[in-house]
């Protein structure tokens, strides 16, 4: 990864984008913070890898499942007696 100062990245913005496209993510440093410049494809690939590593399935695919194929959640019933509530 190449590292750029903010003023240098601003002055050579097109060149920085070209390098991000051909060489991979570029680091831009400004006021003790580091920013990463990467392409949309790299971002989507990174997000896809994280989703697959965590669950093996994306959240969107999970939410699209019909209820009978999704997770069946059961809530246990309380064994204590019901209590009366006054609505005064």
What's the arrangement of secondary structure elements?
Blueprint: E1 2-5, H1 6-11, H2 13-23, E2 26-30, E3 33-37, H3 40-55, H4 59-63
Parallel strand pairs: 1-2
Antiparallel strand pairs: 2-3
Decide which structural class fits the backbone: alpha+beta
- The percent range for strand residues is 15-25%
- Average pLDDT reading: 81
Q: N-to-C terminal Cα separation, in Å?
A: 69 Å
In CATH, the architecture is 3-Layer(aba) Sandwich
By CATH's scheme, which homologous superfamily applies? YefM-like domain
**CATH top level assignment:** Alpha Beta
Q: Number of DSSP helices?
A: 4
- Helical amount: 40-55%
Order of helices and strands: EHHEEHH
Q: What gross morphology would you assign?
A: elongated
Total beta strand runs: 3
Radius of gyration: 25 Å
Main beta-sheet strand count, sense and barrel state = 3 strands, mixed
Physical arrangement of strands within the biggest beta sheet: 1-2-3
By CATH, the topology is: YefM-like fold
Counting structural domains, the number is 1
User: Low-confidence segments, ≥5 residues, pLDDT <50?
Assistant: none
